[in-house]
Design a protein that fits this description.
With 149 residues, the protein is of the alpha/beta class. It has seven helices and five strands. The longest helix has 18 residues.
Length: 149
């Protein structure tokens, strides 16, 4: 027998769970820096090729989309995706911002993914390039300065 109320409750619980796992990634660099200053949080820049870069896709899947990371990030970080897709459409303004950031942080020489951690004032604290299968706890330890990449 179908119980509509139980079904709706289950759907609501699933929606809440899924929402809790999704991290709040921004694309507006300037706004992220303002928010970081106001909230005294660090900024994590993810320079990615979201629809073509295998290591980028794995990093998002194995670290950035995991509850352990998203819970940590929500309390401690402002997340910014700086994306260079091949198939996804982006506004001209976003493309211009991302190209400027690629030059500013030397991404063309480093490759993808490149992760740059900024302090609340916007100064580079740490960075690394590539993804070697780190788990969320290992990535969080790197953000906290407890490990080197």
């Amino acid at each position: 027998m179908f119980h509509r109320n139980r079904f709706l409750t289950l759907v609501a619980l699933l929606a809440t769970s899924v929402g809790a796992v999704a991290a709040d990634w921004q694309t507006d660099y300037a706004r992220a820096l303002e928010r970081a200053k106001a909230e005294n949080k660090r900024v994590l820049l993810d320079f990615t090729g979201s629809d073509w870069c295998g290591p980028c896709i794995e990093l998002k899947k194995q670290v950035f989309s995991r509850p352990e990371f998203t819970a940590y990030a929500e309390k401690n970080l402002i997340l910014v995706e700086i994306d260079y897709p091949q198939r996804k459409k982006q506004s001209a303004e976003l493309k211009k911002q991302n190209e400027k950031l690629a030059k500013q942080y030397g991404i063309d020489e480093k490759g993808y993914p490149t992760i740059v951690l900024l302090d609340p004032a916007g100064k580079v604290a740490r960075e690394f390039t590539g993804y070697d299968g780190e788990k969320p706890a290992e990535f969080i330890a790197w953000v906290q300065g407890k490990t080197k990449k």
